[in-house]
TrEMBL record:
Domain Dienelactone hydrolase residues, every copy: 3-188
MF term (GO), any: hydrolase activity
InterPro entries: AB_hydrolase_fold (IPR029058), Dienelactn_hydro (IPR002925), Dienelactone_hydrolase-like (IPR051049)
Lineage, top ranks: Bacteria, Bacillati, Actinomycetota, Actinomycetes, Kitasatosporales
SUPFAM superfamilies in the record: alpha/beta-Hydrolases
Pfam families linked: DLH (PF01738)
Protein name: Dienelactone hydrolase domain-containing protein
């Protein structure tokens, strides 16, 4: 499977590269675009400040340009938190998308979004301050209306970015469970 994996608001950290290596070891081809042009951030606040300076449109432009050389192959779009929201936006706009793997994040859905049974898997902490229950319920219904085939996995007690061993949110048990399920999902695509 061809996968483009987008980083979180912390930037292209070692955990993203480790995740890509895990996916490659399972036989996938993976690209990890650096949307922050080499910058990484220790805190969500620092990353969010940079993200706001660059702007959502510019980040999406960078993501589209990074994915474009591979999109004809039929990509699985994947991402962590901010990267998940970017992956979702790109996947919903790419008729050749093969799947969408969301780790720790979702995004608004355009009212006219339409896909034909796009397989989508979301892994998120429970509770998650960035992905509240009300938001996730509405998101799930909207994705269904758009035509996506959605699976949601919640991890009680885990922190927001629980798959990143370099952050305080890290939860090894939840991270390993996430990767087991996600790798199984990718095998079905």
């Amino acid at each position: 499977m061809n996968i483009v994996l987008f980083h979180s608001t912390h930037g292209l950290r070692p955990a993203v590269c480790q995740a890509a290596d895990r996916l490659r070891a399972a036989g996938h081809e993976v690209w990890t675009p650096d949307l922050f042009e080499g910058r990484t951030f220790e805190t969500v606040e620092e990353g969010t400040e940079y993200n706001e300076q660059v702007g959502k449109d510019e980040l999406l432009k960078r993501a589209v340009l990074a994915a474009a050389p591979y999109s004809e192959r039929g990509l699985v779009y994947a991402g962590f938190s901010l990267g998940a929201s970017i992956a979702q936006t790109l996947a919903l706009g790419d008729e050749k998308a093969r799947g969408l793997l969301l780790l720790h994040g979702t995004s608004d859905i355009a009212p006219n979004a339409s896909v034909d049974g796009l397989p989508v898997q979301l892994h998120v902490a429970e509770p998650d301050p960035f992905e509240t229950d009300d938001w996730l319920s509405a998101w799930y219904l909207q994705m269904g209306r758009a035509g996506a085939d959605v699976e949601v996995y919640r991890y009680a007690g885990a922190g927001h970015l629980y798959t990143d061993p370099g952050l305080p949110d890290y939860d090894e048990e939840a991270a390993e469970a996430t990767w087991r399920v996600a790798l199984g999902f990718l095998e079905t695509l």
